[in-house]
Design a protein that fits this description.
The chain has a single domain (12-185), classed as Nucleotidyltransferases  domain 2 (Four Helix Bundle (Hemerythrin (Met), subunit A), Up-down Bundle), CATH 1.20.120. It has helices at 17-38, 42-63, 65-71, 75-88, 94-103, 109-125, 139-160, 168-185. The chain is built from 8 helices and no strands.
């Protein structure tokens, strides 16, 4: 796994390479989540799964930016999408951004985002038998959702890979993640 990819500066969101870079980030973060699960580090795995989903959202938002700008209601919203949403994907706006992606064809994006946000809460609060601070009573519940969210990342990457600049590094990271996920599921 190429964890060095996480340390590289991202290309500008206006360039063609941005989507590929964010997809690579999503794949590497997802692989780290699987590695952490295997080591029993469920809260760390939840964090990495969340980061993988967030990087994927950034890639999808950039890939569909033209469509999203067309459905934006105001100039202010269009400016925000270009300057804030795509490069940063604010956690506080992930639900709304996922709903926008659903409006341009990404079925269930908001459901996957809900799972990612639940894992984000778990990362900070850990298991919560009373389910006040976290939606997970125990580690096994969270670990299950980490695996499910990573499966969602794989599903979305598979769906868009023909539309992006896909190179050998992305292909290797994608194959490695699918292998690791398969080994985790079996």
């Amino acid at each position: 796994m190429n964890t060095e990819a996480l340390e590289r500066p991202l290309p500008k969101p206006t360039t063609e390479d941005y989507v590929s870079a964010r997809l690579l980030e999503a794949l590497v973060e997802a692989s780290l989540a699987i590695r952490f699960l295997k080591d029993g580090l469920v809260r760390n795995a939840a964090s990495k799964a969340f980061q993988a989903w967030r990087a994927l959202l950034a890639a999808l938002l950039r890939l569909e930016l033209d469509k999203l700008l067309q459905i934006a209601k105001t100039d202010e919203e269009r400016k925000w999408l270009r300057e804030r949403a795509v490069p940063r994907v604010p956690t506080s706006r992930m639900k709304a951004l996922s709903q926008l992606l659903e409006s341009v064809g990404y079925v269930d994006a908001s459901l996957w985002t809900d799972k990612a946000l639940d894992l984000h809460d778990y990362q900070y609060n850990g298991p919560d038998p009373d389910m006040v601070m976290s939606k997970y009573r125990g580690r096994d519940e969270a670990a299950y959702d980490v695996t499910k969210l990573i499966s969602g990342v794989v599903k979305y990457v598979e769906a868009i890979k023909e539309r992006v600049k896909w190179d050998e590094e992305l292909e290797n990271a994608f194959k490695a993640l699918k292998r690791e996920l398969g080994a985790k599921v079996e």
